[in-house]
């Protein structure tokens, strides 16, 4: 049985008060309503992490994640936050390689490989994002694109470390566009990804790797997506900013 995960990517949203209200609501609702075998993760802007962590308290199925970290542990890198610093706050997960970071901040697969190492070396778990852009899908090259992102970004890991990674397939054409991949398109790619993992690490590791779908997932499509055999959960953008929607998604298995 693979871990079921619903992770919210708040992106650059919410002020202090809004963040505290949302996190408190999510924690209370997740305790009462989310099935105990589903992990709920809130990936917040850096400034909210510590407070959200304290609001989670002893809730057993709720976790906190960052949305990025820097490659280096410390030093003269004005404005950056290291994996080491995040770990010192007890942060559980770190999103790496979201398409917005790849596109707006020029993050390469090589840089993401270093960030992945830093996250794992500091005892946290990476949520590694990847996916093709519209032109690549239209050209039918999506599988090759994804394979390159995985081989250059995380296939350098040992099997033991790879076992700590959560994958998030996010077709870029479905992010912030309101377009979602059909459940059949998601399943096809998730199965291909699992086959790539099996070819590299063996079937047992592939069968144990959680692969989330990301890209305009919401309460109205989560059930169909999560019903696919190789879709283990979601990385949720806009719908994670509304506690009711987010928790409904966590109940969509
Ligand atoms: C989206 O759902 O749009 C996302 O980018 C999730 O990370």
Provide tags for this entry.
binds 3-hydroxypyruvic acid; alpha/beta; 253 residues; 12 helices; TIM Barrel; single chain; 8 strands
Report on this model:
With 253 residues, the protein is α/β, with parallel strands linked by helices. It has one domain: Aldolase class I (TIM Barrel), CATH 3.20.20.70. The chain is 45% helix and 15% strand. An eight-stranded parallel barrel has the order 1-2-3-4-5-6-7-8, surrounded by seven helices. Strand 1, helix 1 and strand 2 form a beta-alpha-beta unit. Helix 1 packs parallel to helix 2 and helix 5 packs across helix 7. The longest helix has 19 residues. 46% of the residues are buried. The structure holds 3-hydroxypyruvic acid (3PY). 3-hydroxypyruvic acid binds next to strand 8. It holds the Pfam family TIM. Involved in the gluconeogenesis. Catalyzes stereospecifically the conversion of dihydroxyacetone phosphate (DHAP) to D-glyceraldehyde-3-phosphate (G3P). Keywords: Cytoplasm, Gluconeogenesis, Glycolysis, Isomerase.
Per the CATH scheme, the topology name is TIM Barrel
Class derived from helix and strand content: alpha/beta
Number of domains: 1
Count up the helices. Answer: 12
Largest sheet, strands/sense/barrel: 8 strands, parallel, barrel
Strand and helix order: EHEHEHEHHEHHHEHHEHEH
Radius of gyration: 17 Å
What overall geometry do the principal axes of the alpha carbons give?
globular
CATH C-level name = Alpha Beta
Quote the beta fraction. 15-25%
Distance between the termini: 13 Å
Overall CATH architecture = Alpha-Beta Barrel
Q: Strand sequence of the main sheet, in spatial order?
A: 1-2-3-4-5-6-7-8
Task: Provide the helix percentage.
Answer: 40-55%
Question: How many E-type strands?
Answer: 8
The overall pLDDT, averaged over residues, is: 97
Present as ligands are: 3-hydroxypyruvic acid
The named CATH superfamily: Aldolase class I
List unreliable stretches of 5+ residues: none
Keywords: Cytoplasm, Gluconeogenesis, Glycolysis, Isomerase
Catalytic activity: D-glyceraldehyde 3-phosphate = dihydroxyacetone phosphate
GO molecular function, one term: triose-phosphate isomerase activity
Enzyme class: isomerase
